[in-house]
Amino acid sequence: MLKDLFYYIIYPGFLFVAVSGGILAWFDRKITAWLQFRKGPPFLQPFYDFFKLLLVKETILPAKGSKITFLLAPVFSLTGALLAGLLILLPVLNIKSGFSGDIIVIFYLLTIPSLTYIIGALASGNPLAAVGASREMKLIVSYELTFLLIIAAIILKANMSIKLNEILLVQEDSPFIGSISGVLLFIVAVFTVQAKLGLVPFDMAEAETEITHGFFIEYSGTPYAFIKLAKYSMLFILPVFLCSLFLGGLQFNGLNILWSVLKLLGIVLLLTLIRNTNPRVRIDQAMRFFFVWMNLLVIIAIVLILFGL
Fold it and tell me: Is this model's pTM higher than 0.85 or not?
């Protein structure tokens, strides 16, 4: 019982996911600063930001809308992100603790943060938040279909297995990225993760220069701290998930620790470079990008899988 609680709460549970996400958020901001010829934030800045919002800043509730729904939305977003992280890391680290890693369950958990952001924005009663929520709904419809097709292709490559630990076993000798179909799927997955994280060029739901943070415009204090922590966690969870699906997973023992860290940092670096070298696209352009081009690449990859490539 105590061992399971340690797994769930500390390592590789909620605390580990949150701290790792904060470190990757610092890495993302540091690389962004270097690209812009700035010094960048100190190592603990993401944690300073979180605790300042949590303990110092006042929580101001919107005058209109549903206050209870508005306050509960960040709680559910953080819960979904942390649960997804736990259920990904348990099989990745080969920890036997009641969940063997059904990637369909993980897929649904990874959609919770975005859905709760929409609910919270609509509950705020702010028209700019409603615009952000509307954009996010359209974006979800486009990229979640692509994400689901990627998972279907991975299941096909893994001999029809939906268990994450079994998918990792299939990749022991040859990670999926070592095939033509794996490379195509990885490219599409990177853009899908970019959209799920709400990073440029797919940040139109926040769009600071257009709708001043969109669906987060009314959030402050503790609720916004929860949103920050959920975003930190997703910045760690999604790269780990990509490593599990394409790069043979992670191993935190011996020299494998260094290789695992490099894989994670490599994916986050790729996401950071994409968001710092591209302009924001319109919502119709983003939908066309996923519905047409990304789905087409996934379908080509599925055909290649059927031919053993």
Answer: yes
